Amino acid sequence: MKHCVFYLIRYVPNASTGQFINIGVFLHCPQARFLDCLFTDDFRGVQQFHPQADLEFLQELQPHFEQEISENEKRLPAYLDGIQGSYSTLIQMSDPQPTEADDLEAKLSQLFKSYIHPEGAATRRPDTRMRIKRRLADALERQGLIGDKRFESDIPSARWDGPGDGFVFDFAYTVPNAARELRLIHALSLRRDNELAETLKLKFSTVRSRLPSPRLTVAHEDIDDPSNAVVRSSQEALRDRHIFLVALAQFDEFAQSVRAELLP
Length: 264
Hints:
The longest helix is centred in the C-terminal third of the chain and has 17 residues, at 194-210. The relative contact order is 0.12. The chain has helices at residues 44-49, 55-59, 61-71, 76-86, 104-115, 129-142, 158-161, 194-210, 229-239, 251-262, and strands at residues 2-11, 21-29, 34-39, 91-93, 97-101, 151-156, 168-174, 182-187, 215-220, 244-247. The chain is elongated, with a radius of gyration of 21 Å. The strands form two sheets. Strands 1, 2, 3, 4 and 5 form a five-stranded antiparallel beta sheet that branches. A five-stranded mixed beta sheet has the order 6-7-8-9-10, sandwiched between helices. The protein is α+β, with helices and mostly antiparallel strands. The mean pLDDT is 90.
């Protein structure tokens, strides 16, 4: 079980009365470097509570915070401290409340049903980089790789390209064979992270110029629309540099292959 905290997000249309309705929840697990949120997409209760509510503004909260979490994944505690002070009128955060979880995604859904929308879960796209990375880490953890001294997390690209932008690969290991081949792993969303795909292409080119036979595997969401222009652009950018792609549905199989490579 992992120690976590959660915050309820409240809609407070009248600061003088202080009356509110819960519209979302954040779950933060420092141990897993995890932060995610769920907001309601059913605003009938909000309209009954405040008929003048700006529903367009409220509907944008989920993608807004998803983007901010992605941009601040290296400084999640500081980001949380910042937004607690920033949203203090119309949108307010509760004080942090402790909880425990073994499955963080399931815990977030449970909190949402308990405090926001008992009838069901919110609609959200399961393709943010942080969610993909969390699902990948769960698959690797099931194979006993997370915490294994042979399997690294958060590897700075500065090892190969020198001090620069501070880019960090998610995971890495070295195959215990005569060639000592490097294996890098990084998560992204093919739908959302086109710029990151370009960055990975450049970073891996530098690694390949300095090491014999390295390999980079990119873990991504399941794709139900392979004709999507952004998806195709990301795929082409990665495959152009002989970068391997593995979809969410294949994460467990991929984790098993990593474990097999690391076995003595």
